[in-house]
Amino acid sequence: MNDNNVKIPVLAAPLQGVTDNVWRMAQHDVFGGVDAYYAPFMRVEHGEIRRKDLRDVSPERNAGLTLIPQILACQPDHALMMVEALEQMGYRRIDINLGCPFPPIALHRKGSGMMAHPDLVEELFKALAAVGDVDYSVKMRLGWDKNDQWRDVLPLMDLIHPCHIAVHPRTGKQQYKGELDTEQFEALLAASAWPVVYNGGLRSVEEIKEVKHRYPSIAAVMVGSGLVANPGMFVPDARPEDYRRFHDLLVDGYTELLNGGEAQLVRHLQDIWQTFLPGTGRKLFKAIRKSRTLEQYETAAAAALADVENALTALPDEPAEEQPAL
Ligand SMILES: Cc1cc2nc3c(=O)[nH]c(=O)nc-3n(C[C@H](O)[C@H](O)[C@H](O)COP(=O)(O)O)c2cc1C
Fold it and tell me: What is the pTM of this model?
């Protein structure tokens, strides 16, 4: 376990379009405190695994960190295609997405949409269980449109013997709105024969300690938007220059990754500020949003980073809506 002062394993949640290899490597190199990083889901489109998904999990782009790739599929043949590709890259741990609430995905009975179709989950798990050399974990919601659909899915875990089940205690239909359903989470925790990971709304080390205190039997916590907002969450004495270095690594990484001209790079960096350092003053944020060239962006970002202590004081209540991909 990492020496992150919370005395429970901490897993970095996958956020499509945000926690890609550039973000993960920068967080790991500058701040750390995370035991394992979960990659945003990969999927099959037009009969092939998206190339950018494969690139994101390539071992050379994730050197030195513990990375668990995630697959999203309801068709067993698509899932097996991804598992085989990941095995060839050397992965022996793979996460299965039963949680994505994004309607175009969930309405196609993928992600959290599968929670309403235990027959499809069973078919998928049976196919995955036949792959000898891979350990699985599952990331899921309480259900798609009912908060107790997990009751039909949980017994199916016996098919794949998951290392853990990470639960975001909402339905898929709720997306990221509404109260976290602690009652159903507790019921699931009591009913599960498999280790359970808590995921949802954790914004600080104190909140992680509270959750561990409230649910002593959880195996780990998974932290998403709180860590994106403050990547130095586990470094109590993180300095402004650490945030600057983190930001510079993002700029360098996306310059190389996007390789698609200045405008695209600036737009992506602006998007990052939708969730990074949420307390950034309005004027500073506006200057970032208004920049049209990399030079303008860098001037605006430098001013915002100079104010990092203020920017860290406000953390978001809810994550932004999930995007299907960058
Ligand atoms: C923009 C965005 C993208 C996400 N992408 C994924 C994903 O690829 N796979 C997944 O399992 N969950 C995804 N999630 C859900 C998060 O992993 C996490 O479960 C959710 O944000 C709740 O945790 P948090 O409150 O700590 O952020 C995404 C969430 C957001 C906001």
Answer: 0.95
Tens digit of pLDDT for each residue in 245-284? 999 999 999 999 888 789 999 999 999 999 999 999 999 9
The CB of 317 under 6 Å from ligand 1? The reply is no
Tell how strand 44-45 and strand 135-143 pair up.
Answer: unpaired
Cα–ligand 1 centroid distance for 108 (angstroms): 19
Reduced to 3 states (helix: H, G, I; strand: E, B; else coil), residue 200 is coil
322 Cα to the center of ligand 1, angstroms:
7
Distances (CA, A) of 218 to 15, 72, 202: 22, 24, 14
Burial 103-136 (b: 16+ CB within 10 A, else e): eebbeebbbbbbbbbbebbebbbebbeeeeebeb
pLDDT digits (tens, 9 = 90+) for 166-187: 999 999 999 999 999 999 999 9
Asked if residue 175 has its Cβ within 6 Å of ligand 1, the reply is no
Q: Let me know: does 166 contact 137? Beta carbons within 8 Å.
A: yes
* DSSP 8-state symbol, 189: H
